[in-house]
Design brief:
By secondary structure, this protein is mainly beta. Helices cover 6% and strands 31% of the residues. The protein has 3 helices and 25 strands. A 9-stranded antiparallel sheet has the order 9-10-11-12-25-21-20-15-18, with helices on one face. Strands 14-23-22-19-16-17 form a 6-stranded antiparallel sheet. Strands 1-2-3-4 form a 4-stranded antiparallel sheet, with no helix packed on it. It is globular.
């Protein structure tokens, strides 16, 4: 009885306020569920509870689709590269060292799926929950209105090696020029690690910039991120917390800087191996109100389109990945890119996008010295896991490159 009451409370916590424009329509012919606000239109799919479209008018009034993905929902499960386009990685986002962790002295071994070797053909660590992590699975649509959609998933005990059942609700809402999301998860039977995120690939030019086909022209500002988590050569945390020294290639906190500004710097290797796929710590003086409208943790802006997004969140880190693994083999959507331009093929090139994943400190379940257990280990009878974020869009016509 208590478990049923907890699940009911979890669902109530997650579901959006009912809209007067409620719709019972299902997905469109491409498997997309659409929601709308005054300034934005967005489409989502059940596969991975993924965002598949985000439409906004640029500084010239031209509509741009500024997130990467595929035209049809069915292709997300077909493409063998599976770059986690727009999905919710889980039940534990990012990397787990040696695919192992301990809870209350009990060791668990989860599905390895990254960096295979002759000795370990499946991989030496776990990325985004294993081979069948959450963003490889179909969620259930439990609510869909004109401006909001909620997905749910039940992750069984033992799936991918994780202990205990987890029930989760993912809610996306549009209002004015803001995309809000809330991710709630409850461990129902055993203590287990939970860390979620949104793995959205951004190109604020809609891949239609006739001056560059990369996102290196985008400006990034991380005002609270003077530190990052140190990693080894396969991006596994070492336990070190590193300073992003002012003026260094990793300095995006002292002032806004173009993502590609340091590529020719002698220390560019640092940027390429750390900034482009590593966790940046958000250091804010507590207590703080993440919704207060002034304390965004990241600002991404393109001088070409004029589109700017400010990210607000209750999380204490985010992963920055600048698509250095893209190689031009993934085709753009019909809503993106340039036509009949041989200099800019309709594919995603290396550095063609950027991912900013709001989340907690990566692999903290293997670093108890960081003191993040209450943020990442959850059990029955305790508080649920909650992640909240707002992406606030605007048009900046005064920005320069």
């Amino acid at each position: 009885m208590r478990l049923n009451a907890s699940l009911a409370a979890l669902a109530a916590l997650s579901l959006p306020i009912a809209s007067a424009d409620s719709t019972t329509d299902g997905p469109d012919e491409n498997g997309l569920y659409w929601i709308y606000s005054e300034g934005l239109s967005a489409a989502f799919i059940a596969y991975g509870a993924s965002i598949s479209r985000l439409l906004i008018n640029d500084q010239y009034g031209i509509q741009r689709d500024i997130v990467a993905g595929f035209d049809n929902a069915s292709y997300y499960g077909i493409d063998q590269q599976h770059p986690h386009f727009g999905g919710v990685p889980g039940r534990y986002a990012n990397r787990i060292q040696n695919s192992t962790f301990e809870i209350d002295g009990v060791a668990y071994h989860v599905d390895p799926n990254e960096h295979p070797t002759d000795a370990e053909p499946n991989g030496v660590n776990t990325l985004h929950g294993g081979h069948d992590g959450w963003d490889y699975r179909n969620f259930t649509v439990v609510s869909h209105t004109n401006d909001s959609i909620t997905f749910s998933i039940v992750d069984p005990d033992g799936k991918e090696g994780f202990p205990g059942e987890v029930v989760s609700y993912i809610t996306y809402t549009l209002r004015d020029y803001t995309w809000d999301f809330k991710m709630v998860a409850l461990a129902t039977t055993k203590k287990t690690p939970i860390m979620l995120s949104s793995h959205t690939y951004w190109n604020l030019d809609g891949f239609a910039n006739n001056e560059t086909n990369t996102a290196l022209n985008h400006t990034l500002y991380l005002p609270y991120s003077g530190q990052r988590i140190g990693v080894d050569n396969i991006l596994i945390p070492t336990g070190d917390i590193l300073a992003n020294k002012e003026g260094s290639v990793n300095d995006f906190w002292s002032a806004p800087k173009q993502i590609g500004a340091s590529l020719n710097d002698p220390e560019a290797f640092t940027l390429l191996t750390h900034m482009t796929d590593n966790a940046w710590i958000i250091n804010r003086e507590a207590p703080y109100n993440w919704r207060d409208g002034s304390s965004y943790v990241a600002r991404l802006q393109s001088p070409w389109s004029g589109i700017q997004v400010d990210i607000y969140t209750d999380q204490d880190a985010f992963q920055v990945y600048s698509c250095n693994g893209q190689n031009g083999t993934i085709t753009l959507k019909e809503t993106q890119g340039l036509d009949d331009n041989p200099d800019f093929p309709r594919t995603i090139p290396q550095y063609g996008c950027i991912v900013l994943e709001v989340e907690d400190w990566i692999d903290a379940i293997n670093h108890p010295e960081w003191g993040r257990a209450d943020k990442q280990i959850f059990g029955p009878g305790g508080d649920p896991y909650v992640l909240q974020a707002s992406y606030v869009f605007s048009i900046n016509t005064t920005a320069t490159s």
